[in-house]
Task: structure prediction
Amino acid sequence: MPDACWTRNPIDPVDQHFTTRRGTKSVLVLVPHIVAGTRLLDLLPLLEADHRIQVVFTNPLGDSWYATRDFLHANGATVLPWSQARRSHIDLVLAGSVTGLDELAAPTLLIPHGGGFGQYRNGSPPGTTFDQPPQLRTNLGPDQLIREGRLRADAIVLVHDREHTLLADVCPPALPAAIVAGDIALDRLTASLPYRDHYRRALGATDDQQVVLATSTWSPRSAFGRHPDMFDRIVSELPRDRYRIVAALHPQIWSHHSPWQLRSWLADALRAGLTLLPPEEGWRAALAAADHVIGDYGSVTGYGASTGASVLLADTPDRPLLPGSPTAVLAEHAPRWRLDRPLEPQLHAAADARDASGLTALVRDLLTSRPGRAGYILRRTMYRMLDLPEPARAVPTSPVPLPKPVTP
Result:
């Protein structure tokens, strides 16, 4: 008999008498936080319309962040308690983080939840120097990918050939599991660019307005951590008749500080016309619409540079960056936002710098080695791991949905 924490579900033998479709392969989506969840949701359309597959979700951190719990249940899927998921028979695990992998025995596909694995970690202390071993600074080292002599994932998805070279240097035992698939999030963003006008209208921008996306990752070192008044500054300096200001903040800011607190902190800017995007989705739609991006070392800023938007970089001193990565190239070529100077001329200068340096093409080439191919490679990989023939239907690469701004 199920215990008190048991959730009725379609993959456990104890509940098979409720099942309509039997004999399916089970896919467990591992979501410890919203960022991993949103990236993994990009993979699930690759399994659509296949009656041989049953997908369920779980959170290896339990309900430690209510925002992750709400995110999972809002998608309408079966969500297993972690204690139950660990005991269930699973044919394939999809993971956007190594959290929880050591407690699962099923074949696992690990995909990065940002702009690739080959960046320095958010947790690197100020003053970290480049003479430290690379495995101490990236998410591709043995401390991340190997536990007790066992590789933690059967397929490790890389976005770029550069990461494959890095992996060969810092963790050679992981090379047999490495698959350079490109970046499915970037492919969806690229597929969205032809619908720029639709996204602009959904954000409330008129034909006479330029869209400015202001974005921050999390941590005290981030743009919002260093400059809590950044959105107030931007809204106050840019005329409302010429600019539509949109804010995208890292989901961990929402999860840790709460939506109420974030709306409270941004209350003045929201009253002054700031458009705030929810943590789950909307940032790619805003990037497709954006003329300018003001951001820090977070992956959203790098994605923004790939769309053709100009980039004004919030200075983040002491931030260790991996040489040759998109973030490092942005730090080298994009102009810094100077808080002691008027903002509007700096946006014009950023556009000139973008055109002079060829920054758009440069960053796009660094974000993926397989442009437009991630869906094909990932679907082939997942079906191989499931030991199922791949469907004949076309691989979908859908534009992202229209943004739904947060109501103040």
